[in-house]
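Hi C.,

You asked whether I'd gotten around to modeling the 276-residue construct. I have! Everything is below, sequence then structure, no commentary in between.
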Amino acid sequence: MAATQAPTAGEYVVHHLGHLTNTGKPQTAIIDFSIINFDTIFWSVLLGALAVFLMARAARHATAGVPGRFQAMVEILVEMVENQSKSIVHGDRTFIAPLALTVFVWIFFLNAMDLLPVDLPHFVFIATGLDQYIHYHRIVATADLNGALGMALGVFVLMIYYNLKIKGLGGFLHELFCAPFGSHPALWLANLGLNIIEFVAKTVSLGMRLFGNMYAGELIFILIALLGGTATAFGFIGHVIAGSVWAVFHILIITLQAFIFMMLTLVYIGQAHEGH
C-alpha cells in the first residue's frame, strides 16, 4: 500500500480553515445562508451552556463568609461588569448587567478555544474513528464571520428594542427622521440615511472586529504548526518557542476582544437610553 502523501502547506492551511458544513465541502469566511456551519453552532451552544452553568453554580454556592478562589474570581468579574454598566447605562440595568456579564464570559470561552493545539480535533477524530465522517472542523466559533456577525446582530436587535422601549415608537421614529441635522422636512431623508448607516456600521464593525482579530490569531497558530512539521530540529524548536510566545500573548488578545465586545454592547445599549 502506498504511503499517504503529506499535504502541502497550502492544503494544510485550507484544511484547517474549513468548516464542518451541511454541504460536506470546506467553507471558510463566506456568508452564505444556504450553508450551515455545524462546528460553529456546536461550540457556540456548548460553551454558552458551560458559561451559564459556571455562573449559576457560583451563584448557588455563594457564601457570606470568606469566599473560595472560584467565588472570589466571579465576584471580581461581576463587580467589574456592574461598575462598567453603571457608568455607561443610565437606567434600569436589571437585564443589561447580567447580559454584559454573559457576553464577556461566553466570548472569552469561545476565544479561549484558540489556545488548544491546532491538530487536536484531527487527532481526536482519528482516535474515535470519526475521521471518516468529519473531514473539516474548526473549534473557534468567533473566528467564523458568520458566528461573529450573528452575535453582532443580536446586539443590533437589543439596540432597536431599547430604543423602542425607552423612547416609544413615536419618539424613535422622530429621532430617526429629525436627528442629528434638525426636524425640517427637507432634512428627513438625510437624517434617516445617516441613522441607518450608523446602525449598520455599529453592527458590522462590532462583528468584523471580533472576527478579524480571532481569525488572524488562528491563522498564526496554523502557520506556527506548519513550522513544527518541517521535521528538523530548528523547525521543532522554533515551533515550541513561537507557539509558546504567541499563546501567552494571545491570552491578552482573547480577553481584550471579549472585553471590547462587552463594552461596545453596553455603549450601544446606553446610547439607546439617550436622545439627541
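If it helps when you're writing up: The chain has one domain: 9-272.

Thanks,
B.
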